[in-house]
Amino acid sequence: MNQQLSPNQRMIVLAGNIGSGKTSLTQLLSLSFGWTPSYESVDNNPYLADFYADMKTWAFHLQMYFLGNRAIEIENLAKAGNSAVLDRSIYEDAHIFVRALHEMNNLSDRDYQAYFKLYELVLRTLPRPTLLIRLVTPVETLVQRIQQRARSIEDTIDPDYLRLLDSYYKQWDKEYSESPVLTIDSQRFDFVNNPEHFNEIVSAIETCIATKTNLVLSEPG
Fold first, then answer.
1. pLDDT in tens, 121-169
2. pTM to 2 decimals?
3. How far is CA 30 from the centre of its chain?
4. What order do you get walking across the sheet with 11-16 strand by strand?
5. What is the spatial distance between Cα 8 and Cα 79, in angstroms, rounded to a whole number?
6. Distance CA 148, CA 151 (A)
7. Strand 84-86 relative to strand 11-16: parallel, antiparallel, unpaired?
8. 185 CB-contact burial (10 Å; exposed 0-12 / middle 13-18 / buried 19+)
9. Which residues pair with 134 in a beta bridge?
10. Which residues contact 66 (CB under 8 A, 6 or more apart)?
């Protein structure tokens, strides 16, 4: 049975491709709403660098690590009773990254099936999010952003890999039903540098939560 959030507790999760702006928006929302931020473990992830260097060898290890860490993170945030914003959803691990890795033959059928059995079991114990914020960004823009931030562990990311992930995101957008969704064009909404753009997002978040309906922000103003 799913764990439940307390009546006034909010759990907001962000979803989007690598470089779509999840971490930046998480930080801004945590400051604006007073929500506890939770960031994806990158620097202290024991598998990520190895994975980018040799996906086939380390794909299963990495995804199992993410699944366990993400479940513990969500459970702890729910138990703490405070509202929180997470810069990556547990759903993406399974429906985007694991599926893409399987398609690329970096995960065997056996490992793929084993992962999903555990994922489905874990998901039954976790609370559903209050809102999913989906950041949509063209792959060309993602490549530019990744190059600009120059993280050493991302040096080997192939644009074709980003395109494959993007195709799975588009498919998953039609399937996701765990919560209301706010979809944001993160190329056109410069929420980092433009306060008006960020305020539009804040207003849309409040509307989505209050009405429990989906919204799409495609053009500022």
1. 999 999 999 999 999 999 999 988 887 776 666 666 788 989 999 999 9
2. 0.91
3. 16
4. 36-38, 84-86, 11-16, 131-136, 181-185, 215-217
5. 13
6. 9
7. parallel
8. middle
9. 15, 183
10. 93, 97
- Residue 76's identity, in one-letter code, is N
Cα–Cα dist 193/46, whole Å: 33
How far apart (Å, rounded) are the C-alpha atoms in residues 129 and 84? 10
**Does residue 181 sit in helix, strand or coil?**
strand
Catalytic-residue membership of 158: no
Q: Which of 45, 46, 127, 43 is nearest to 89 (CA)?
A: 127
Question: What 3-state class would DSSP assign to 37?
Answer: strand
What six digits make up the tokens of 47? 């598998």
Q: Which of 43, 50, 54, 87 is catalytic?
A: 87
Task: Give 6-35 pLDDT, tens digit per residue.
Answer: 999 999 999 999 889 999 999 999 999 999
> If you write DSSP's letter for every residue of 81-102 in order, what string do you get?
-S-EEESS-HHHIIIIIIHHHH
Strand partners, 16: 135
Q: Which residues pair with 85 in a beta bridge?
A: 12, 37
